[in-house]
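Every protein is a chain of amino acids, and every chain bends into a shape of its own. Below is the pair of lines this work produces for a single protein:
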Amino acid sequence: MSVLSEGARLDAAAAAVGRSEPSIATVGDYLDLMKPRVMSLVVFTALVGMMIAPGHVHPVIGFTALICIAVGAGAAGALNMWYDADIDAVMTRTSRRSIPRRRIAPGEAFGFGITLACFSAAVMGLLVNWLAAALLAFTIFFYVVVYTIWLKRSTPQNIVIGGAAGALPPVIGWAASTGTIGFESVLLFLIIFVWTPPHFWALALTRVEDYARACVPMLPVVAGREETKRQILLYSAVLALAGTSPWLLGYRSAIYGVTAVVAGALMVLLAARLLREQEGSGAQSAALRLFGFSILYLFVLFAVLLIDAVAGRFA
């Protein structure tokens, strides 16, 4: 299929999702617009950043900060779906989202996202502190404007640079607790930042046709599957080292260190197996295994960080 025909298809999809029709949206549709699975990971990593920060944050302030972070993440998700409605409509993975199904009009999604973004940043500033509010506002801006509007459709490095938005929640949590940006929170940022490319590219390997049809220059589409697998292995190796940095630099206990070493080694092993697999069902399965394990990797590391911090408070 030619580039012109693909462009026409995207134009038709954009026209379809952009028609003005009465809203039939339910609460569930608006929740779907906020990407609740992504939101839950954002809130969890922000909680860890808050808990490992020195000192004690008042429970009400901490809860307020987490609500603001959750709402801000939902705002970013809604604005992402608003802008990406045209490509979502032609991708199998995203065609059942609320806007392509015409459950929510694009204008409604935009208004909903802007309202949530302003509300979350304002409440964070007024009730928590203005550094945390500025970081939250910057994160929303970076995800929507820098990643979604600029990078996603222009470069195969979209997810590498854009991953900074998803890596900022622990820094926001730390700032909400202390009013500062601590070095350990920067290490958590680094872990998530390096984790994002192998995590997302593993999924992209199973959706190459989808991204090609939507004219999104993901790395497997532009550079091919083999180069993508090599990049996944490279980033996984860097991630294995980055994951141990809180322990190597003396911030965390040996329990965290052992967990990070074992989890990092498994991540590299799965990436190496993916590289060895030839194209076909074996490669698809290997990519899905790595994608699934990458989620477990991040959850386990941050869960142990949280347990380590809580144990340290009661030691």
